[in-house]
């Protein structure tokens, strides 16, 4: 239900029934409409009687609706999931119609054009007016009635397509049935508590194609046919999503051209740090050219490993395929640096790592985290709740919710939702921020806790970076969210921790003995960072280029989203599907979840964050000094100031790609 302005430490209230969600949606929309009607009736619009009222209402609207729409990703109650998904559609449709209203644009534009008043506003309020004017204009408020009808139709359909695409990925249950012989090479722990069925006289184990267990098979299975079976299943589910993505690409182009842009990429990027598709492609193509020679060398090494293993078994080597990559890149790591990731996992028990990662964040940012002092409302009994305070106890900062274990129909990756931000409510007080992280780690067994791979530690650190970014932001207005290519920087920067010997000595302790990871093993782990690194980075580049390519078309029907994905990945990322029928584009969720024309943000942020970490956290500053500067210059402003200026203030200069390239071993 809709609550009054949150008081200090008040938790998020999660709806407990489909009826509650429906009622809350209606109340939020009615309240928003009432504010809009009041604003459009103003004869002499000012910041105070127009912009501020709209902004405060939007703050509360987002605070309420985020908690409602989040539940479709996490609730174990099917009715609540469906109601949450339906609410998402209704709310998106409402916002689309709201942001196209010409009467709202008229009063906002009156304030925007009042140069005297604009000059007296502080930077954040002035930026709010500018962003609001641009948003309304970019959503069609300045178009003709006929054009607005077209945009409204396109936007409504895009919402439907994006939600259907995401729902299909999140609720995919495809699996393969494999015998113990077919799963030769898998450790005994893999079979603990694993569901199985008899097919005739043969016991077959169920392996979910989209879960972490599939990765285990791709790494350990000695039988190539088994690896291929799992990879193809993993890369060919959600076939209905192909048509959804194809239609979305065409509709996005139609929308962009209604606003006078040649492509959808031009339409989106003019409000990002990058500004233009040309700037993005310059970054991606430059990195591709630098990475490719090293990636080809790495690929030749992986091919040699497979050839040796295949021929030693008396078989004929016939090539290196996508289902081989995880197995032989793991072997390369073991061979080159004597790093066995299964041994490494023993030092990363989930509960221990989580506590230490939280400590790293809080120590660096001047905060502290404690388990919630009372039972908070949650969407599932397994959710852990934490309070975040200033380190000196001078102020309560917010809440973190952690939902760590896999469940059927739950979001299948690691991600963070900003349930509530520290924006200003209608009475002028700040709301209490809250962040929720969802993950899908396997449940611990009776004998073994959840042991994380090093890459999962990296993902955990990255996700929590987004959680703390939301908690530390002091932007007053929800409209001033950080652009995608800026929002990724903080999480990417803190990921550097997982490769720093000093941090690893803190993070890594053996789950049985509690012993710190030995220095010699840390050295080998850090040295292994660049094993197949150019291939991995090149694949990130490929995805960024693919995102740009499908959104830079100027005519509908000129690109096949699946064929282009497969061809481009083979050409740019050195992929080889061996003729298998796969369509990974159908599960490329980022470009249907707000990262359309935004996937480049990961590489963009990797370059800038490596520079920031090298300049401040690996330099003469202490971590506390650098952390305080990072919190004040990057996290607190959020999108409430120019992001490029924020980066330059933190660095004391313009950013460079030198540090990023050096981490890969390139000059």
Describe this protein's structure.
Helix content is 55%, strand content 8%. The protein has 667 residues and is α+β, with helices and mostly antiparallel strands. Strands 4-5-6-8-7 form a five-stranded mixed beta sheet. The longest helix is centred in the middle third of the chain and has 36 residues, at 277-312. Mean pLDDT is 92; it is low at 1-8.
Structural category is alpha+beta
Q: What portion of the residues fall into strands of 2 or more residues?
A: 5-15%
- The overall pLDDT, averaged over residues, is 92
Q: What characterizes the major β-sheet?
A: 5 strands, mixed
Name the assembly state.
single chain
Question: Helical amount among residues, as a percent range?
Answer: 40-55%
- Report the strand count: 8
Q: Tell me the span between the first and last alpha carbons.
A: 56 Å
Q: Strand order, biggest sheet?
A: 4-5-6-8-7
Low-confidence stretches: 1-8
Overall radius of gyration: 25 Å
* Tally of contiguous helical segments: 25
Form type: globular
Which helices and strands, and how do they pair?
Layout: H1 18-40, H2 47-70, H3 78-98, H4 102-112, H5 115-120, H6 123-138, H7 145-170, E1 175-179, E2 196-199, E3 202-208, H8 212-220, H9 224-234, H10 240-258, H11 264-269, H12 277-312, H13 325-337, H14 341-345, H15 350-365, E4 367-371, E5 384-390, E6 396-405, E7 415-420, E8 434-441, H16 454-472, H17 484-494, H18 501-507, H19 519-527, H20 533-550, H21 561-572, H22 601-617, H23 623-635, H24 643-651, H25 658-664
Parallel strand pairs: 6-8
Antiparallel strand pairs: 1-3, 2-3, 4-5, 5-6, 7-8
